[in-house]
């Protein structure tokens, strides 16, 4: 069926599913090869795990950055790709992937110059068309673990991550959990919030030992062997009930951060006919999946010996985009020209 433009939210040479670090860099590398891109992400802002889970933390192992705050790295990736004007579809989940040329999607079924197009169906309606697809979906769909008493206050004081520390200025913040995220948020919020209380149901914390020591030394109230049993407040969260052993107490709380971990799954991508191994997409050295002109990069892909790091995802993004360029423009070279050969922002 021919799609009218009204059906299509965006069309581009390359559709990138996932606007985390690997997806953003894939869009940059595509742009450098003169290819247009559309970036689809289920989250409302770019940056993947970094924006969602640790925007304020410093990352020390990204090449060329002795230390870079998560938010700053993502801002820079967004700025780097901006000259190529990628089309962002944020807050949109890629639900389906179909080829409009053939229903037989084995690699041999499509010649490289067959002009095949891919259509990504978006959850809730809308479509994206592209000649090639780069899947940079990271952990896929991640749903925060929660407790029944927290649900009614989601978005009204209860949150599962901390996008901006300054939102919690002058608030009494309760953090629930005993892992790295819980302790790290507590340490980060201690100088900002009016008060910080960590509630953990066990006596020992799973978080890094050094961070736990810092937490006990900081101006943070730590309630171990304790559990949040109820949230209260008329319109927004005002206080939480906590059980500590046999005792019950009430804490003032205008914010509660539940750092209980996430349940992750490939989500709709699992249904796309891709070869999946251990909940990750199998790729070859060119980052090709088993579907023609569909690549996978970053934490969602797997091959023997893969290391799940931001810098590894960058290399994979560059490989995928350049291989896509050759497949979309047969006869072009695999190696891009050197960016240093261009005097200005490298627009083709
Ligand atoms: C607390 C913590 C600290 C870390 N510290 C470091 C560190 O110091 N150094 C380091 O190198 N790495 C670190 N990592 C790992 C690093 O964050 C990941 O390796 C990196 O984010 C992976 O990038 P990505 O682009 O592959 O995927 P992600 O960052 O996971 O982004 C994937 C994006 O795809 C989107 N998506 C998934 N499925 C769909 C769909 N169907 N439709 C639309 N969008 C979809 C998601 O919403 C997400 O935004 C850390 C991770 C955590 C949790």
TrEMBL record:
InterPro entries membership: FAD/NAD-bd_sf, FAD/NAD-binding_dom, Fd--NADP_Rdtase_type_2, Ferredoxin-NADP_redctase_2
EC number: 1.18.1.2
Lineage: Bacteria, Bacillati, Actinomycetota, Actinomycetes, Kitasatosporales
PANTHER family noted in UniProt: THIOREDOXIN REDUCTASE 1-RELATED-RELATED (PTHR48105)
Keywords per UniProt: FAD, Flavoprotein, NADP, Oxidoreductase
UniProt: FAD binding residues: 41, 49, 54, 94, 299, 340
Protein's UniProt name: Ferredoxin--NADP reductase
Summary of subunit composition and partner proteins: Homodimer.
Pfam family, one: Pyr_redox_2
Family as reported in the entry's similarity comment: Belongs to the ferredoxin--NADP reductase type 2 family.
Residues forming coiled coils: none
Catalytic activity: [thioredoxin]-dithiol + NADP(+) = [thioredoxin]-disulfide + NADPH + H(+); 2 reduced [2Fe-2S]-[ferredoxin] + NADP(+) + H(+) = 2 oxidized [2Fe-2S]-[ferredoxin] + NADPH
Class of this enzyme: oxidoreductase
Cofactor binding, per record: Binds 1 FAD per subunit.
Single GO MF annotation: flavin adenine dinucleotide binding
SUPFAM superfamilies (alphabetical): FAD/NAD(P)-binding domain
Occurrences of domain FAD/NAD(P)-binding (ranges): 13-314
Superkingdom in the source lineage: Bacteria
């Amino acid at each position: 069926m021919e799609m009218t433009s009204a059906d299509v939210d965006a069309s581009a040479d390359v559709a990138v599913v996932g606007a985390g670090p690997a997806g953003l860099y894939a869009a940059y590398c595509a742009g450098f090869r003169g290819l247009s891109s559309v970036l689809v992400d289920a989250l409302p802002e770019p940056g993947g795990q970094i924006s969602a889970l640790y925007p304020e933390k410093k990352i020390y192992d990204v090449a060329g950055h002795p230390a870079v705050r998560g938010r700053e790295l993502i801002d820079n990736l967004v700025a780097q790709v901006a000259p190529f004007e990628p089309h962002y579809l944020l807050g949109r989940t890629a639900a389906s992937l179909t080829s409009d040329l053939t229903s037989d999607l084995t690699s041999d079924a499509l010649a490289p110059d067959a002009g095949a197009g891919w259509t990504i169906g978006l959850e809730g309606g809308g479509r994206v068309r592209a000649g090639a697809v780069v899947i940079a979906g990271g952990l896929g769909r991640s749903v925060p673990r929660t407790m029944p008493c927290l649900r009614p206050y989601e978005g009204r004081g209860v949150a599962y991550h901390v996008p901006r520390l300054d939102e919690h200025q002058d608030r009494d913040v309760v953090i629930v959990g005993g892992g790295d995220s819980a302790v790290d948020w507590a340490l980060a919020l201690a100088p900002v919030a009016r008060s910080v209380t960590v509630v953990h149901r066990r006596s020992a914390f799973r978080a890094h030992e050094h961070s736990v020591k810092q937490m006990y030394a900081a101006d943070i109230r730590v309630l171990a062997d304790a559990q949040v049993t109820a949230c209260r407040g008329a319109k927004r969260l005002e206080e939480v009930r906590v059980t500590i052993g046999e005792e019950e107490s009430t804490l003032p709380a205008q914010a509660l951060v539940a750092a209980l971990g996430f349940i992750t799954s490939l989500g709709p991508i699992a249904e796309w006919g891709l070869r999946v191994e251990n909940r990750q997409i199998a790729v070859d050295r060119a980052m090709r999946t088993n579907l023609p002109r569909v690549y996978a990069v970053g934490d969602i892909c797997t091959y023997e010996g893969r290391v799940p790091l931001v810098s590894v995802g960058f290399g994979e993004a560059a490989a995928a985009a350049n291989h896509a360029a050759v497949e979309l423009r047969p006869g072009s070279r695999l190696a891009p020209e050197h960016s240093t050969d261009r005097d200005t922002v490298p627009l083709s």
